[in-house]
Specification:
With 274 residues, this protein is an all-alpha fold. It is 80% helix and 1% strand. A two-stranded antiparallel sheet has the order 1-2. Strand 1 and strand 2 form a beta hairpin. Helix 2 runs antiparallel to helix 3 and helix 4 crosses helix 6. The mean pLDDT is 85.
């Protein structure tokens, strides 16, 4: 039992450090790295496949809460957060999160893996083939169409265990928002998404069978306790590395990582159902 916990803690510390470096290096949210990493760590530890993805998503969402608070406060001090946009998106984001969390609670492992793998593949395609400064329109759509965007972002992010930046930053920049402002504001979205979604995954997982030791619903408390400090400490290192290296090949490398991760998840599902 103790050896299993030590192994889990060591693996998750590595996950947190890698997620933090990539977040600082490429400006991506840690969840897009943490979820597949947790999924494979839990598979290695032979955690029940029926709850494996739920536990990965719930734990990732919990880790986003403190990192989002730290990030949004830092960006806000520099005046980079678009508070008007954050206020206008907060309610529809919340609605999307509630819907996405409810769907995730009733979805089986296959459904959650399919959602993550498909969106990860789309994100990989965007990173590989779309320039960071490309934009489609000069401003976000208004009215019902404009409100549907944050509902979509909140719902999919809750089901994937990500903070929203992975989806919202490309959307905001496509509609004319400067990249630094989009990243800063997305940190605020992460908090709106992660708090209610984490609560939902805790409630949904209470009493679930085969949960590993020290889990609160679908949140691994060991994972939370180890990943958060690893991520927080590693982000500045990623930022420093970003100043030394050309980001374009790094974006392509990360896109390849996401694509391989997505196809590996598809393969795992095919093997389980074949």
């Amino acid at each position: 039992m103790e050896s299993d916990l030590l192994l889990l803690a060591g693996l998750l510390l590595a996950v947190g450090v890698i997620a933090g470096i990539l977040a600082g290096l490429l400006g991506v949210g840690g969840g897009i790295v943490i979820v597949p990493a947790l999924y494979h760590v839990f598979a290695y530890l032979e955690i029940d496949p029926a709850i494996r993805m739920h536990l990965a998503v719930g734990t990732s969402l919990a880790t986003i809460i403190p990192t989002s608070i730290r990030s949004v406060l830092s960006h806000h001090k520099r005046g980079a957060v678009d508070m008007d946009l954050l206020r206008s998106w907060a309610a529809p984001l919340f609605i999307g999160v509630v819907a996405g969390t409810a769907l995730a609670a009733y979805a089986d492992n296959t459904g959650l893996v399919l959602v993550f793998a498909t969106v990860a593949l789309l994100v990989a395609t965007h990173m590989a083939f779309v320039s960071g400064d490309w934009h489609w329109r000069e401003q976000l759509p208004q009215g019902a169409a404009g409100q549907s965007v944050p509902v979509f972002v909140g719902g999919i992010s809750a089901m994937m265990g990500i903070g929203g930046g992975t989806l919202s930053v490309p959307i905001l920049t496509a509609f004319g928002t400067a990249i630094h402002r989009a990243v800063a504001t997305a940190a605020g979205f992460g908090l709106v998404i992660a708090v209610p979604a984490t609560i939902g995954f805790v409630i949904a997982g209470l009493g679930a069978d085969s949960l590993p030791a020290y889990s609160l619903g679908y949140v691994s408390l060991v994972g939370f306790a180890v990943i958060v400090p690893g991520t927080v400490l590693a982000v500045p290192l990623g930022v420093k590395i970003a100043h030394w290296l050309n980001p374009k090949p790094l974006r392509l490398a990360f896109a390849m990582f996401l694509a391989i991760t997505a196809f590996r998840m598809y393969w795992d599902l095919w093997m389980q159902t074949g």
